[in-house]
Amino acid sequence: MKIIGVIPARYNSSRFEGKPLADICGKPMIWWVYQQAKKVKEFSAVFVATDDERIEKVCQDYGIEVLMTASTHKTGTDRVAEVARQVGGDLFVNIQGDEPLIEPKMIQQVIEIFKDESVYFGTLKKEIKDRDAIQDMNTVKVVTDLKGDALYFSRSAIPSNIKNGKVTRTYKHIGIYAYKRDFLFKYTTLPQTELEISESLEQLRAVEHGYKLRVHETEFETIGVDMPEHIAFVEDILKNKL
Fold it and tell me: Does the pTM exceed 0.90?
């Protein structure tokens, strides 16, 4: 199977404009994400997909493979699909461009889901131990069926755990996706759904249209950069590793 890694990157962001180019220990954030993705031996190629010439220029300066895509895409998945129309491949992995510390083994774990040939859409989850994080609307939660296919994603606490104090395990969704080529193209033709829009979670489009999304558990944590103040925290971790 030919596997392609794609890192969607856009410049405009309401909370952190120019985030992919934010300086982290002397390198732009997108460089750090790309270096982690390149460690995944299963990839035939890794591309940054952007609609911004500033990001394209920085990628070229740092020797990062970059593809320009349309500015009209509503989601990262739509951007990955455009890459899939330009680049041959069987499986495409959508890697978040704001996770400079992403563990390459996590990417490999989402690829391993496809050892089950019936799977066409996959992602990861991690158990939440922090009770405050369960209530945090910025932490996306997921519940799955006994086979591991997603039942629902929400920013609210799911399950509610209100029955006689019994606590059911709660899982955080890890926002890395992989899609078989044909499903990727199908997915981008589906109309947006009410749940997708209300939760602001693009994966609900597939779930609400009746498609299966296989979710495997990971032991690794992710550290995303959502706001400028998160940069210092990431830099401290990197400095201890360098």
Answer: yes
